[in-house]
Design brief:
Layout (H helix, E strand, L loop, with lengths): L1 H12 L5 E5 L7 E7 L2 E7 L3 H16 L7 E5 L4 E5 L6 H9 L5 H20 L18 H16 L8 H15 L6 E3 L8 E4 L2 E4 L6 E3 L1 H9 L8 H15 L7 H29 L3 H4 L2 H14 L7 H12 L1 H5 L5 E9 L15 E4 L20 H8 L2 H24 L3 E8 L5 H13 L5 E7 L5
Helix pairs in contact: 3-4, 4-8, 5-9, 7-9, 9-11, 11-12
């Protein structure tokens, strides 16, 4: 794959690809790489789902032509499932939410950016959706009965059944039908982004840019707003959500006539289905695929669900669903997910670019300097590889000092973990630094993570600063 990316890069920019580094895909099946050449940096995307690629590339072109801030597409190789696109950096709206929640960003600055996002959403839905060509939409051209059925069954089979929440299947199907009919009563002639949440909004010089809209289709306005305001881990306070809802309606009135009461009533019905769709994803990725970090979103989603149950009355009867929501909110199994374990955050970084930030708010932790270890990056055959590649791992493990270095690190870390667990501490930061943040630091971060995963009393968060921020 790297060779095909290199060929496309050279053809596109008329220069050699000097370095390629994998970056986080945040749970997506797509793979992303940051590509460096002479005076050019871009991203490369690889996705085996050809139809999804075609949808993204087509939608990118259409939205950009309408003035929507989406990444520029430089080139594509559809047969190889690869395309090159603009690098928008590493700062998402969710990153700013975390900074604000940790007291490292004034609320007024976050508020200003959210206002821009809400206004941009209306533009995407109305101006972006005007005369939009959905012929390449995938998997559906509309958020219709079938789309809703897929989301509801996703929730039923991958969340309810896997989390062992009891329900009457026939009564649930009756409620599903009632909810679906109510949702489809809304005007559905707008562009529905589908996954309009904080991790899909990049912030560049305080301006929001938008990614991951390949699931877009024709649909109702309320769905995307529900995705943004009830984004589980963003955990917006109710008063701020209400402020943004009112701002959205005010902005929307500049384009179309709006009955505020009717809009808000059906808006909350869309909030419910969005939460159920997200719960299905958390169940599939967490319970089924065993990806722990997805399970950590469940408590936030349950908090949103509890707020809805306490504050919202829908114009549609859903007796079985409300019974299920009550069981979810009080479920011992689901609430055990919220139990506080020690979180050991392990980071690799480049000394050239400075020390990584500790967003836990605790400060301290360990920083290990790996620059005394022989650097595989000095050799051409390892230049485009990282500390996760077998060739680099073999090179490092042939060095006598690597084993001793790691043994000493492990003794110090285990000593702290034992004490932290006894005292009920919840965060420990461990950083490995080297010259480029690509080979030695990545190797030791990966090795420590794999070693500590055997400890069931802790959770691990692994973060390669130069590869996925």
């Amino acid at each position: 794959m790297n060779l095909k990316i290199s060929d496309l890069f050279t053809k596109t920019f008329s220069c050699e690809l000097e370095k390629i580094i994998p970056i986080s895909s945040h749970g997506s099946s797509r793979e992303y790489f940051r590509c460096y050449g002479k005076n050019i940096v871009c991203l490369a995307a690889f996705n085996e789902d050809k139809k999804e690629n075609i949808a993204f590339l087509d939608f990118s072109k259409q939205l950009k032509e309408k003035g929507i801030l989406v990444p520029k597409i430089y080139s594509q190789d559809i047969e190889s499932n690869i395309y090159l696109l603009e690098d928008l950096g590493d700062t998402t709206l969710f990153d700013l939410v975390q900074l604000q929640q940790d007291g490292k960003m004034p609320f007024s600055e976050l508020q200003e950016i959210y206002h821009k996002v809400v206004k941009a959403l209306v533009k995407i839905q109305i101006e972006g959706g005007e005369n939009f060509d959905y012929s390449n939409a995938y998997p559906r051209k509309e958020f219709d009965y079938q789309s809703i059925a897929w989301d509801l069954n996703y929730f039923k089979y991958y969340f309810l059944k896997l989390s062992e929440v009891q329900f009457d299947e026939q009564d649930l199907e009756i409620d599903f039908k009632s909810l679906t009919n109510y949702l489809l009563s809304a005007n559905s002639n707008y562009f529905l982004y589908r996954d309009f949440q904080s991790r899909n909004i990049m912030i560049v010089s305080k301006e929001p840019y938008f990614i991951d809209f390949q699931g877009g289709r024709k649909g109702a306005l309320q769905y995307d707003l529900a995705s943004l305001l009830f984004d589980a881990k963003a955990n917006l306070i109710p008063e701020f959500r209400q402020e943004l809802l009112n701002l959205y309606i005010s902005e929307l009135k500049q384009y179309v006539e709006v009955d505020e009461n009717e809009f808000k009533k059906i808006f909350y019905a869309y909030v419910y289905i969005r939460i159920m769709q997200a719960m299905g994803a958390y169940g599939f990725r967490g319970f089924f695929e065993r990806k722990e970090h997805f399970l950590k979103s469940i408590p936030f989603a349950l908090n949103n669900l509890k707020w809805l149950e306490d504050n919202v009355v829908l114009d549609v009867e859903l007796p079985e669903l409300h019974k299920i929501y009550s069981k979810m909110i009080t479920s011992k199994k689901l609430n055990e997910i919220t139990s506080k374990k020690l979180v050991v955050t392990i980071k690799s970084f480049s000394y050239k670019r400075g020390y990584p930030q500790d967003i836990s708010g605790n400060g301290g932790g360990f920083i290990f300097d790996c620059r005394a270890i022989h650097n595989p990056g000095r050799y051409d055959e390892y230049a485009n590889l990282t500390g996760k590649d077998k060739e680099v791992i073999d090179f490092l493990e042939e060095q006598e000092d690597v084993k001793m270095f790691f043994e000493n690190v492990l003794k110090l870390i285990n000593q702290s973990i034992q004490i932290y667990c006894k005292r009920g501490f919840t965060n420990l930061l461990v950083c490995f630094g080297c010259t480029g943040g690509q080979h030695r630091s990545v190797y030791f971060a990966e090795k420590l993570s794999k070693t500590l995963l055997q400890n069931t009393d802790i959770d691990i968060v692994l973060h390669h600063v130069e590869q996925n921020k």
